[in-house]
Amino acid sequence: MKKSQLKLQNKDKNFHKYRRIKSLIFLVASLSTGVLPHVCVNKYSKPIILVFTFLVAFHGLIMIFNNLKRRSIKNSLFIENEDYEKPVVDILVAARDEQNVIRKLTEMLLNLDYPEEKLNIYIIDDGSEDNTNQILQKLSATNKKLNIISRQKDAGGGKSGALNYALQFTVGEWIFILDADAQLKKDTLKRIISFALKQSLNAVQLRKSVINTNKNFLTTCQSIEMAMDAVFQYGRLLISGVSELRGNGQLIKKNILLDCGSFNEDTVTDDLDLSLRLMLSKSRIGILWDPPVMEEAVENLSALFSQRQRWAEGGLQRFFDYGFQLIFGEISLSKKLDITYFFILQYCLPIISIADFISSLIFKNVPVFWPLSLSAFSLSALASWCGIASKNEGPILPKPNILRVFLFMIYLSHWFVVIPWVTLKMSLFSKKILWKKTLHNG
């Protein structure tokens, strides 16, 4: 597929209408799948579901156990000789109302172990109404390496708009994207660049880890969740070559980013959207377990559900926007199978399971899809155990034990509420794209 064919669809005046129609079709199809075995009883339904469950479990186990390779090849990931020619890197941070964390972030960036003449730091004050701008101006007055870019609050495009606006000022070969609450080890930039160059990658995502793991039950579970996600992502990369960016701690070659259309201002998750466009353009994305990028986890249920609704909506948007290219595009069969696998488990299964459970109550019989749901939760439990049991250079991960993983599974079930709710909203209500920022406490 030519890169010119990958231009963003947000130029279409019916863009949101198409998303709404596709969402409604997806919702009806998923609900029908959950209800149909109860309405039209067929002796083949259960065997088919059992066979599919076996395939899901088998593929998932291979994916998880592929992480054993990560430990054995760790020492061959980086360029051994540090005298190699280091490229110019531009760090971009979009910040709005980040007075609690912006000073710590800036101090960390100014102390990174990377040649000063090869590093440019750009922090975009995206219409802050607190003291973010005042803090940045004071810091930039004494640090010439720190570049402050200001936008009006109503400039539009959210984080994507801020990053796109800043791209015009960049001069480096690589772009390194961070959130305002990000924290890195001093040598992280040097190591991620070394990794990208040695592996001939177009983009790299650092493993995300939680700074405030021990704050409460929710932050502990988010720490486990990030480790679990990294296990799955690494396994996917080794099996099919599919991996995803996570917004914070992502390194991208500038020319590749521009060829893919930069950051999509018509989606609520620019990272997931960009991941698919990079894959469609046959760009290579790598994942680096260590060193990680450290960030804050949200600390209450309200913030968690707000964040997860945005993630769910953005996740669905990308499939609705690029579904045709994913099905008929020139990507490998293994990638298509991988995308289908995760689309079914992440987005279809929660809706199917809800419809299946309600139908079982109405028709007074046993849910049909419970083996598939059980398999999905079991794989998540195993991946979470594998993730938190792994050695890592970041904040200490919760120690694995049966009770902790069981409680984590209860926490993880919130996706079975979030996905159906978000899909319903996307199907029934017309809306403008809204970016609701996550509050960082520092």
Number of strands: 7
Class from secondary-structure proportions: alpha/beta
Order of helices and strands: HHHEHEHEHEHEHEHHEHHHHH
Question: What is the CATH first-level class name of the largest domain?
Answer: Alpha Beta
Separation, N- and C-terminal Cα atoms: 44 Å
- What is the helix tally? 15
Radius of gyration: 22 Å
The strand line-up of the biggest sheet is 3-2-1-4-6-5-7
> Which CATH architecture of the largest domain?
Alpha-Beta Complex
Can you summarize the main beta sheet?
7 strands, mixed
Key phrases:
7 strands, alpha/beta, disordered N terminus, seven-stranded mixed β-sheet, Spore Coat Polysaccharide Biosynthesis Protein SpsA, Chain A, 442 residues
Can you describe this structure?
By secondary structure, the chain is an alpha/beta fold. The protein has 2 domains: 170 residues; 200 residues, Spore Coat Polysaccharide Biosynthesis Protein SpsA, Chain A. Helices cover 54% and strands 11% of the residues. Helix 11 crosses helix 15. The longest helix is centred in the C-terminal third of the chain and has 31 residues. The protein is globular. The N terminus is likely disordered.
